[in-house]
């Protein structure tokens, strides 16, 4: 019999690519959406596979629908992020939905006897507390929860911790594995959801006056999904964390890769690096910049040696990922060619 995988958040950027990859590998896929009315858009984005893709109405902020969503499921890829209020000054607006959403999925999965849940966390959940620190860290490190840290980073750390604490008190067949990605770029499936590729979109449209000195560990969305599936299947992945970061590149290097790969189509991409003090001054009036000021000039990196050794995982070069991301944005009409 064909195995069934539940993917949380089928309308999401990573969720959509997870559906595509699982269908290509011969699985039946069920995906959660907040409203079944969104099903047609998901089918169109992933290339309508007929009855092999089904939908369940379930919201990470509500208990309703989760038991039905898990019925008959073999594996779960919990890649969805709940819609917290990122503009709120209250960090709990992000932290509580992320933590409670993870626990909701795990409760339903363990009740249904699912074999394994693979949950998406973030590399920021395995990073040093000090932003001034330059180091290479692995999965053994847990980010220390500190109210001074950005709420998003705290939400990912606390949600993953809550998941592991839940499993520590659980005595049953369901297993948990977590994947901790870096900055997720790559092609999009639909113009209706550009996900984290908004950064590349902003660079292509000239909405950034320059490149802040921010370093990103770029991972291709297709490689990230491949890591999730490897973590889902490998017996030795049970109960483990796996970093899924990629090559470390500065924003200026991303801009240069876009220029080299796209030529005239990258005419609006800024390649000059903005001095740190300029970004800090701009953040006074631009709230969207405040979250990144703490990362200016920081070169903390993560090693993916464990995923490579245990799961045989490989990543493509960052330059290839960002160029193919940009080409996809242009092809889907998100950015004018």
Report on this structure:
- With 337 residues, this protein is of the alpha/beta class.
- It has a single domain, classed as NAD(P)-binding Rossmann-like Domain (Rossmann fold, 3-Layer(aba) Sandwich), CATH 3.40.50.720.
- It is built from twelve helices and 14 strands.
- The protein has a seven-stranded parallel beta sheet with strand order 3-2-1-4-5-7-11, with helices on both faces. Strands 8-10-12 form a three-stranded mixed beta sheet. Strands 6-14 form a two-stranded parallel sheet.
- β2, α2 and β3 form a beta-alpha-beta unit.
- It starts with a strand and ends in a 6-residue tail after the last helix.
- One of its GO terms (molecular function) is oxidoreductase activity, acting on the CH-OH group of donors, NAD or NADP as acceptor.
Topology of helices and strands:
Elements: E1 4-7, H1 13-24, E2 28-33, H2 39-46, E3 53-57, H3 66-70, E4 75-78, H4 92-112, E5 116-120, E6 136-137, H5 151-168, E7 175-181, E8 183-185, H6 198-204, E9 211-212, E10 215-220, H7 221-233, E11 241-244, E12 247-250, H8 251-262, E13 273-274, H9 276-283, H10 287-293, E14 301-302, H11 305-311, H12 318-331
Parallel strand pairs: 1-2, 1-4, 2-3, 4-5, 5-7, 6-14, 7-11, 8-10, 9-13
Antiparallel strand pairs: 10-12
Helix pairs in contact: 1-7, 4-5, 8-12, 9-10
């Amino acid at each position: 019999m064909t195995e069934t995988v539940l993917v949380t958040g089928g309308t999401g950027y990573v969720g959509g690519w997870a559906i595509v990859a699982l269908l290509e590998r011969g699985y039946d896929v069920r995906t959660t959406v907040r409203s079944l009315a969104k099903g047609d858009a998901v089918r169109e984005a992933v290339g309508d596979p007929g009855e092999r893709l089904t939908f369940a109405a379930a919201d990470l902020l509500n208990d309703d629908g989760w038991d039905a969503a898990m019925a008959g499921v073999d594996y779960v890829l919990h890649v969805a992020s709940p819609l917290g209020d990122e503009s709120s000054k209250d960090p709990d607006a992000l932290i509580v939905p992320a933590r409670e959403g993870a626990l909701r999925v795990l409760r339903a999965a363990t009740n249904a006897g699912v074999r394994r849940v693979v949950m998406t966390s973030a590399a920021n959940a395995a990073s040093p507390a000090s932003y001034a620190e330059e180091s290479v860290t692995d999965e053994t490190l847990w980010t220390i929860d500190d109210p001074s840290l950005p709420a998003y980073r705290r939400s990912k750390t606390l949600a993953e911790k809550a998941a592991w604490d839940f499993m520590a008190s659980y005595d049953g067949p369901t297993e948990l594995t977590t994947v901790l990605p870096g900055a997720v770029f790559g092609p999009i499936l639909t113009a209706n959801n550009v996900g984290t590729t908004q950064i590349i979109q902003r660079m292509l449209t000239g909405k950034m006056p320059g490149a802040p000195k921010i370093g990103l560990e770029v991972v291709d969305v297709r490689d990230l999904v491949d890591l999730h599936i490897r973590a889902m299947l490998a017996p030795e992945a049970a109960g483990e964390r796996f970093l899924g970061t990629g090559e470390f590149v500065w924003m200026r290097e991303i801009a240069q890769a876009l220029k080299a790969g796209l030529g005239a189509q990258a005419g609006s991409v800024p390649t000059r690096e903005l001095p740190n003090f300029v970004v800090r001054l701009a953040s006074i009036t631009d709230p969207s910049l405040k979250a990144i000021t703490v990362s200016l000039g920081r070169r903390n990196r993560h090693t993916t040696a464990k995923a490579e050794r245990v799961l045989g995982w490989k990543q493509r070069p960052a330059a290839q990922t960002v160029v193919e991301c940009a080409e996809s944005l242009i092809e889907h009409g998100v950015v004018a060619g």
